[in-house]
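Record 1 of the preview.
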Amino acid sequence: MGSGVSKDDLEKQHVVVIGAGYGGVQAAASLKKFGVPFKIIDPKDFFHHCVGSLRASVVPEFGKKIMIPLKEAFGGSFIQGKVQTLDTENKRVVLEDGQDFEFTHCIVAVGSLGPVPARTNQTTMDGLTEEYKGIAIEIAKAKKIVIVGGGPVGVEMAGEIRDVHKETEITLVSSCEELVSKQFNDKFQNRIRDVLKGENIKVEIGRAQNLKELKLNVVEEQEVVLDNENKIPADLVICAIGLPPNSDMAAKLLPDKMDDNKRIKVNEFMQVEGFDNIYCIGDCCNTEENKMAAYADAHGATAANNIVNSVGGRKLAAYRKPFEGMLIPMGPSHGLGFFNGYIIPDMIASMLKSKDLFVGKFWGNVGLKAPA
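->
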């Protein structure tokens, strides 16, 4: 196992992981390798590698690569269901259907929410497959697409559409001058604007005032009205604004541990404030960083390692952010990145992420092979 902790001690533990997103799945995969018994619980029957969801909404055949069946990955350790109660005093998790599980340690990983197609409410692979097919049909029919949101999701969505639909008019609406992240420097901002201009993707600065009134992801003649009174005609509007934490679920589980930003308060070891056996990871915890898959992945590994460390009576390891930056695919052949203050050029960004969006990595992490 390589953990340095006795097999007998590890097998006496039982960890419950609530949520099968990036952090939860990484935590479960690490626990499995350590030989720690666990249950991972999620309403979906699949891990949604949502980094690839934008591509799948344009090329639905890609969808099968970003839905990893949890039963195949974790066997009887996976429970499909929704958690009703986290009883921290009696160390029990109770599901809506009445099932309950005792734990020695619990990892809360309920993630973030967001609009389709970046996120989904589908709970089965068949349902998500049909959702992607439907959106792809609408995108193919559209002549004037407006994407509301100038963060990474909006920029990537524009790039994926342009890669397939060369003649479609695409407008990206950003509420601020900085695209992708306000933390990325002027050099990056100039470069990403050059890339978008080269792909004939127009950028409009302003806040969409009538977003709640618009029909999303379906072809229909509409206008996106900005706070500067500009009106942008569209026959398809896609929302790519923010991915807020799943704060309702987080507050339901740990109501006394929420911060002012509706995230669960954790220490440097990923433990929930006031507990030594309950951890919180991923988008729902209050680590000070951009919320992204790579960081949630590192959270999951840190939490699992620290559970093993605690069982062995060893010093816990503080979470360390693996890097500062981001890779932004613009379709399978193009992209741009920002890493520890340096711009990652198109060719390297494409090799690192754009081509396959780390599909093989995430399937391999749970011991499965990605479909061709």
